[in-house]
Specification:
This protein is of the alpha/beta class. The chain has helices at 4-15, 17-26, 28-41, 57-64, 76-89, 103-106, 119-122, 126-131; strands at residues 47-51, 68-73, 94-97, 113-116. A 4-stranded parallel beta sheet has the order 3-2-1-4, covered by helices on one side. Bound molecules: S-adenosylmethionine (SAM).
C-alpha cells in the first residue's frame, strides 16, 4: 500500500518529468561520472533493471549500448516519457510502473545488474529501504 510520503513523491515526479529529464543535461558531470562506473561493469547483452529510472537517461543509454533493459519507476508520467524517448531514439526497453518496495512481487526475472538510483533517498523508513533491495 502506498504511504502518504510515497504518494507525495509520486505526485512530485509526475509533475516534474521535463525538469527531471533536463536535470542530467544541466548536471552532465553526474551523468558522465555515473556512466563511467556503469561501463566498468555493464557489457552489451547484459540484463539490467533500472529501479527509479525516471525519464530514462540511463536506461536509454544502456539500451543503445545493446543491453536488455527494464525500467521500473513509481511515476507513470516518467515511465510514459521514457517510452516516448525510446521510440524517438529507436531503442527499446521494457518499462513498468511500480513502487520499489514491491519490486520483488512485481518483477520475477533475474538480472546481471540492478540500478537503484532514486528510491533509497526518498524512502524515509529503514524497513522500506530494505524492501526496495531486490
Ligand atoms: C531523482 S530521480 C532519479 C532518476 C534516475 N535514476 C537518475 O539517477 O537520474 C528519482 C526517481 O526515483 C523514483 N522513485 C522514488 N521513489 C520510488 C519508489 N518508492 N519506487 C520506485 N521509484 C521511485 C522517482 O519517481 C524518480 O523518477
Amino acid at each position: 500500500m502506498m504511504t502518504d510520503t510515497v504518494k507525495i513523491v509520486k505526485e512530485f515526479y509526475d509533475k516534474s518529468v521535463v525538469v527531471e529529464w533536463e536535470r542530467l543535461q544541466r548536471h552532465q558531470f553526474e551523468f558522465e561520472l555515473t556512466i563511467r562506473y556503469i561501463n566498468r561493469y555493464v557489457k552489451p547483452g547484459d540484463k539490467v533493471l533500472d529501479i527509479g529510472g525516471g525519464p530514462g537517461r540511463y536506461s536509454l543509454y544502456l539500451a543503445a549500448k545493446g543491453c536488455d533493459v527494464t525500467l521500473f519507476d513509481l511515476s507513470s508520467a516518467n515511465v510514459e516519457f521514457a517510452k516516448e524517448q525510446a521510440n524517438a531514439q529507436g531503442v527499446s526497453f521494457k518499462a513498468f510502473v511500480g513502487d520499489a518496495r514491491e519490486v520483488d512481487s512485481l518483477i520475477s526475472e533475474q538480472y546481471d545488474h540492478i540500478l537503484l538510483m532514486g528510491p533509497l533517498y526518498h524512502l524515509l523508513q529503514e524497513s522500506d529501504r530494505v524492501k526496495a533491495l531486490p
